[in-house]
Amino acid sequence: MDYTKWIGSLLLTIIICSLLLFLMPEGGVKKIAKILATILIFASFLPVGNQFFSDSRDLSYKKYLSDAELSLKEAEAKYKNEILRLTREEIAKRIQVQAAEWGMETDVSVSLRIDESNQILPESVHVLHHIPVEEDTLMKLRQWIFTNYQIKPRRQSHIFK
Description:
The protein is α+β, with helices and mostly antiparallel strands and about 160 residues long.
């Protein structure tokens, strides 16, 4: 903002208001004119005040955007972890259901990874068998896990309790 123009307009406002008040007759009209002149002079301060407050608003808005961006990143990380947890639980539950269909009693845990394209992929599976199973049934489960989740048999651990 050009302060020389503002000072010039402020001085012009003061001079005009003073001149009008000097020429005005005494009475109720002069009292109202004094109030209006005071308001007019204070109004001429607004451009400077507006400039000051707009700068502070810009700074607070930038801070708000920065805080919002940070909150968004935190939320994204939180929900990504939540999605991973839910995906892990869902895959483990499906493997457990399939194993139960073949007569196996199991506890299953799955580990996941996120690849370069942000895709969630199963990385390994750990199956705890509560009762002994036949080798054919175990091979069927290994093959089913590989077919459905692309977890190779070497990335599958089957432990018998």
